[in-house]
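Structure (tokenized):
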């Protein structure tokens, strides 16, 4: 996804009203699993947390294009606290990839490109700070709050949040979504990942990146969370 496209997504990431026209997600209990299918928003995250309050839940099976940051973080923190496994049969993108997927104690993917990233709140702030985007003061204030919460979450689970946006920068400069092999995920702190199938979907919107770690570290930009 191009930088201008990501910039246009900021209100969608922040505001519940942006999801009003989206179909409601299906969230239900099936045996020891909560099966989540659809967009992450206030209602679907609340339903997930309600079901998680019952005993016997050991995993979440999720198919999601992503959604709002704050509800996704609510879900991810609960997943991490309960030590749930996260299973992704087909698709976990955007906020699902950023927060829900790495929160799992174990992760099972239905295919290699089931999880795809295209930026997070640290990336949003970097776009502003590097002069590549401009948002209102109100949007930026909310973005900073979420970026600080995001950073705290990554710190708590031992994950390098740069995983969610390094591929948007040169030399990769991925237009839409990118995905990583399990051996590269481990370097970012996302371990215990099993891929069930050997073949990717072939979706051109999902690009596999091979990480050059010295280059990645040398080119990592600084992001200010407070201004």
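Design, position by position:
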């Amino acid at each position: 996804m191009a930088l201008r496209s990501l910039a246009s997504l900021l209100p969608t990431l922040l505001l519940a009203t942006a999801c009003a026209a989206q179909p409601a997600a299906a969230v239900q209990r099936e045996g020891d699993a909560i099966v989540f299918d659809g967009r992450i928003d206030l209602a679907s995250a609340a339903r997930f947390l309600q079901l998680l309050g019952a005993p016997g839940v050991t995993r979440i099976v999720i198919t999601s294009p992503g959604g709002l940051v704050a509800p996704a973080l609510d879900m991810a923190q609960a997943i991490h606290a309960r030590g749930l496994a996260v299973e992704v049969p087909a698709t976990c993108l955007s906020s699902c990839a950023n927060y829900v997927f790495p929160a799992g104690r174990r992760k099972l993917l239905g295919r290699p490109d089931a999880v795809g990233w295209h930026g997070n709140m640290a990336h949003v702030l970097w776009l502003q700070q590097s002069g590549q985007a401009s948002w209102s003061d109100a949007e930026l204030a909310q973005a900073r709050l979420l970026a600080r919460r995001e950073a705290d979450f990554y710190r708590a689970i031992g994950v390098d949040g740069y995983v969610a946006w390094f591929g948007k920068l040169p030399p990769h400069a991925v237009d839409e979504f990118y995905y990583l092999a399990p051996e590269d995920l481990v370097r970012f702190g996302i371990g215990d990942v099993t891929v069930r199938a050997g073949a990717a979907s072939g979706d051109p919107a999902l690009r596999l990146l091979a990480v050059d770690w010295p280059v990645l570290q040398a080119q990592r930009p600084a992001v200010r969370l407070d201004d």
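Reviewer-requested clarification: Residues 1-8, 16-20 have pLDDT under 50 and may be disordered. Residues 3-218 form a domain with the 2-enoyl-CoA Hydratase; Chain A, domain 1 fold (CATH 3.90.226).
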